[in-house]
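Researcher: Structure for this, please.
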Amino acid sequence: MAYITQRRRSVRNSSVPNRSLRRSPVRVRTRKPHRLAKLKYPRIIFLIALLLTVNWTVGAVLKLLFPPAKPQPQTQNITISAPANETDQTVVYNIKTPPNLAPSKELQTIIDGAVDIAKNQGLPTESLSITLIDVSKPATHTIAGYNNTKLRFPASVAKLFWMVQFFGYAEKGYIPKESPFYTDLSQMLRISDNDSASRIVDAITQTESGENLDKSELDKWVEKRSQVNKFFEKSGYTGINLTTKNYPITGIGEEPTGRDLQLRENPAYSKGNSVTTDQTARLMYEIYTKQAISPLASTKMAYLLTRDLNPKAWKNIDSNSVAGFLGESLPPDIYYASKVGYTSRSRQEVAFVRTLNDKAIYVLAVFGDDPAYSKNEQVFPKISRYIFDSLNQTPLKSTPYP
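Model: Predicted structure, token format:
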């Protein structure tokens, strides 16, 4: 302000009369505003919202048109240090002889009644096998059965045997880490996933499915795949065959192809997988008496086999392992573990049952090797409830199965 005042005074005292001196206005250069700058704030917000909406809509449409690939369980390529030759005793199942189980007339009477249930429903009893092991008396464990030494197709019950061999290899160090396989083990046992089972079979036999092999390579491949049989055969599981994977398998197909089909063309393996209900019940018995592989391994396997019989846990799940099987008719307030098998031509299950009061503790294996059993969803639950009521003399808080 001082500068401006002094300037004005000098003008008044100038010798030029009646002329007012004015300073030329200073021109300030301004940038021409962008068109968007003229928009009001509500319009700006509206445009931003519109752009976000369009972006989201386009993204959603693209996801529908080009959906992401379904994620597959992640497994690591683990190197398995297999035995040098088949005489290496470290790869044999640890229990060399069958358990000392006493035959029981009382149990046999119960089994005969179970067979009558199937007969009364018009089912072919020659296609039925049953094994029952009573474990409730500590001093003596007893057994009874029907067609219980006849080799039959086990369907997904074979996964029980593959699990045991996996833990046998893990304990011996041939599989250095269990954790990369945990997802596959869980999926194989809990939801009977064939893709997971395929990877477990590959791991324990060091084989993979694929195209045809020439004779020399095929012989080597078959020798490795048959290790799953030798693991159990040398421990008294006579005649067992577990070399064939369960199908369908993603990326392979509905049935064996390539070298897996070549395996089935071999006369020794042409009938596919086969076990008896005695062998199946024995393996479940050895798991739940903590003898299979080791007490720790048996505990891990028992956890994978445990099932929740509360209807809320399974009724709304498609293809669950309770409806139409041995567990459906049993009360939910018991301990129950099982592995089921099912195809359009057969129905199978092995189960361990234990009441909370320990009045009834038993292993039950039932194989129905005929399409009639596959279609009938009542016979397994009826047989199961009949045996449960026969062995459990103290009634539980539950309604009888119709």
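Researcher: Any notable elements?
Model: The CA atoms of residues 150 and 276 lie 5 Å apart. Confidence is low (pLDDT under 50) at residues 1-26, 64-90.
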